[in-house]
Design a protein that fits this description.
5-stranded antiparallel sheet; binds iron/sulfur cluster; single chain; 5-stranded mixed sheet; 30% helix; Sulfite Reductase Hemoprotein, domain 2
């Protein structure tokens, strides 16, 4: 134990759920980030029948069903198996950490549709000798480019599509000791095999099995061992950020996508079932997951996109990037986690409302304790639960030193003052 929380060093799965304050957390890893609408409805039903009806969208583009019990786990497994969402064992499941662009195969501006690479990688991870020793948090990021790129995200291994003259190739990189290190490029057909080869090379040379713990010498040795084609200038083509992530997104071929954010990454089973019903009514076959807790649907017609947006607004989903809730992360807090007595999400909502009225335009992280489950990146203001109050950090993470304390009972006054002060600090 460190402080009042346990460091687990692994992520929950369906085969190996994690005990939390509201029961077992069962993580479901959809293939290539896609959930058919029929499966979405079945998952919503299963969340209500076998859990407490609460569903999280995770930062690795997975779903988590909460409040499952030892008795309801086996029947839940049966449902997941029927939906092709249950791995053969916990070891295979634990290493299937693959994040892919949410609009892969839908976005006409993508360089490469990475879904076949994701499928090939899944097969190799399930079958490959040695990969079962990879740490549970080891991750692969597959970025085919397009309007929702992933390059800002962290992962041990990056496979990024880039233009190479008239052709496309896949740049191979790792998140090493000095940040993202590019090792070279390969053809899309070889990318999954190279990714597994690279994972095994990292495992062999890293003291923790993670790319970040490699020495600079080890990165150079791996680069030489892989012997990939050099990258030239092509990688610069894909270093962009999304200009729009939520709402109605016009795609280059006259079709649309709709991005629907879940407040604090949480939906309940009724909301998910209603969304599945609406998607089916509009003839939409699948929903895509993203690592930024936003769901996507490809849609052919603007009028249907507007209908889906109207439905989502009425359901409390976030449909506008300017919504202050998109800049606030908060962990589940009291009632869901036994490491805090603080109502983190309730406090985060109050702070988000005040962000609008004070003109505060930065990011907020409200954490029930110093573990910081909801966010690892820096935030402009971080509230860290410590007993019955928060310690407040400016432009940092839960690990940094606090400059103030906040009593939640004073949030309307002291919280308002903090946001106002922080805003003027940035003017
Ligand atoms: S950060 Fe929040 S969810 Fe994570 S252990 Fe602490 S209180 Fe629980």
């Amino acid at each position: 134990m460190t402080g009042s929380f346990a460091i687990k060093g692994w992520c929950p799965g369906a085969r190996r759920p994690m005990q939390s304050g509201d029961g077992l957390v069962v993580r479901v890893r959809p293939h290539a980030g896609s959930v058919p609408v029929g499966a979405l409805k079945a998952l919503a039903d299963a969340a209500a029948r076998f859990g407490n009806g609460q569903i999280d969208l995770t930062r690795r583009a997975n779903l988590q069903l909460r409040g499952v019990t030892a008795e309801t786990l086996a029947p839940l497994w049966s449902v997941l198996a029927a939906l092709d969402l249950l791995d053969d064992d916990a070891e295979r499941e634990a290493i299937r950490n693959i994040v892919i662009n949410p609009l892969a195969g839908v976005d006409p501006t993508e360089v490469v549709d990475m879904r076949p690479v994701a499928r090939a990688l899944e097969c190799r991870l399930a079958a490959g000798p040695g990969v079962q020793q990879l740490p549970g948090k080891f991750g692969f990021l597959l970025d085919g480019g397009g309007c929702l790129p992933l390059l800002q995200l962290e992962a041990d291994i990056h496979l990024v599509a880039c233009r190479d003259g008239a052709d496309a190739s896949i740049a191979i990189g790792l998140d090493g000791p000095d940040g993202l290190a590019w090792l070279g490029s390969t053809a899309a057909a070889d990318a999954a095999a190279i990714a597994v080869q690279l994972a095994l090379a990292i495992l062999k040379r890293s003291p923790t099995g993670r790319a970040r713990a490699l020495s600079s010498e080890a990165v150079s040795a791996i680069r030489a061992e892989l012997g990939l084609r050099s990258l030239d200038r092509s990688i610069a083509n894909v270093r962009q950020v999304a200009s729009q992530a939520r709402g109605l997104i016009a795609l280059a071929n006259g079709t649309y996508a709709v991005g629907l954010g879940a407040v604090f990454g949480r939906l309940d089973s009724e909301a998910m079932a209603a969304l599945a019903f609406e998607l089916a009514r509009l003839g939409i076959a699948e929903l895509r997951l993203s690592p930024w807790r936003t769901l996507y649907a490809g849609i052919g017609d603007r009028a249907d996109g507007e209908r889906l947006l109207a439905f989502a607004r009425g359901s409390g989903l976030i449909v506008d990037d300017a919504d202050p809730l998109t800049r606030v992360d908060a962990c589940s807090g009291v009632g869901s986690c036994s490491s805090t007595t603080l109502a983190t999400r309730q406090h985060a909502r109050v702070l988000a409302d005040m962000a609008e009225s004070t003109g505060f335009s930065g990011t907020l992280h409200v954490s029930g304790c110093a573990k910081g489950c909801a966010r690892s990146a820096l935030a402009d203001l971080v509230f860290i639960g410590d007993g019955d109050h928060y310690r407040v950090v400016r432009q940092g993470t839960v690990k940094d030193n606090a400059f103030a304390e906040l009593d939640p009972a004073q949030i309307a006054t002291a919280g308002h003052a903090l946001l106002t002060q922080e805003k003027s600090a940035h003017v």
